[in-house]
Amino acid sequence: MTSTGWADAQSIDDVLERMATIEAALPSEDGVATFNRMYQQVTRLVDVAIDQGRFGAGPFLGRLDVHFANLFFDAYAADLDGREVNDAWAPLFDNRRKPRTHPIQFALAGMNAHICHDLPSAVVLTCRELGVDPVDDSPEHVDFSTTNSVLEEAADEIKSWFSNGVVARLDEIGGRLDDGFAMFGIHVARAGAWQVAQMLWDLADNPRLDAMFRGNLGRGVGLASRGILI
Prior knowledge:
mainly alpha; DUF5995; 72% helix
């Protein structure tokens, strides 16, 4: 597979199709495949929640999901083309075949890059597209926070993927599964991502500071991911 014609996804159906393509292209033990498999299931659950009318701010969540996923696809396409992957994603792509790495480490490194680095940019892109501001307690912010409940529904199922088979019998590994998911703190990370989005929104008129802030954000997130993958 090459990234020629790898255009941005335009809908959640497009997103799921691209995730299925990535899944088919990579061996199951690949660290990027591990993250993609988890992300694919979360995206399905968010899509179902949108169809069920659990969100009230019009198209915001659907468009956010698309912009968000495209940032992961950008990193994937860069790696596929032999181009430099951004600092936040580089640890996962650089270490995707690292021996003696538990799958949960790959999943957490991907979550760290995607939530802490990509999500703020996706919020800004979505707000610009829809002509709304990322304001606390706005309908958009309420929907953004409501997504946490969807992620909670996915957590036990996803954690079970990493605790099947031989590793499930190892108390040490089992402890790492629980500790890893608890330590990451998805709610806290997503709340922080909203605040970072507000900062990016305010920096829009100052390209120099915007670039400095984004650069430092990417390096900081990348450093954390390298720690996860030790």
